[in-house]
Amino acid sequence: MSEGELVAYDRGRRPPMPAIVLGAMGLLPMLIALFVRLAAGVDPDSALPGKIGGLALTYAAMILSFLGGIWWGVASTRATEEQRPRLLVIAVAPAILATILYGLSADMPVICSTLLGLVIALTPLVDRMLDRRRLVPPWWMNLRLPLSLALGALTIGLGFALT
After folding, report:
1. Helix axes of 124-132 and 48-78: crossing angle, nearest 10 degrees
2. How far apart are CA 99 and CA 16, in angstroms?
């Protein structure tokens, strides 16, 4: 591979700046919720941490559903006829899991946020499959892996902070 080809390949593996910035901004709701919860420890009678935590768990569930929507779009537009049915089944799983885990989170916030965070952290496994089949851009995993691991960890942390 020539130097020019190597530079072009590396550039192709680097996510576009808007995707990096917007992806990073997507972590803000969880960071803010954790900050509010930890800062509110001085006022245990405040209802704000619970409300913010509930909103943040809603956000995490929505992001998980959003990822399923991305996978549905990839399956619908880029997959072969042979690949499509399996990928469409995989694509609906995040919305179902998000709904169940969010629905149970009021009664079991630590368990549900932990499971929700783990599922989010594991979503790059599906992305990796899409990447291997060349159904996503070359930079996809370089964006998705750190964002999924960060959002998963923050979601798990929020659950423990809410107790």
Report:
1. 20
2. 31
Classified as helix, coil or strand, 7 is helix
pLDDT digits (tens, 9 = 90+) for 101-139: 999 888 888 899 999 999 999 999 999 999 999 999 999
Tell me the H-state helices in the chain: 3-13, 17-25, 28-39, 48-78, 84-104, 109-122, 124-132, 140-161
- For the whole model, what pTM was predicted? 0.87
Contacts 24+ apart (CB under 8 A), 69-75: 69/95, 71/126, 71/130, 74/130, 74/135, 74/136, 75/135
Model confidence band, residue 7 (pLDDT cutoffs 50, 70, 90): very low
Domain ranges of the chain: 3-161
Q: What is the DSSP letter of 136?
A: S
pLDDT tier, 4 (very low <50, low <70, confident <90, very high otherwise): low
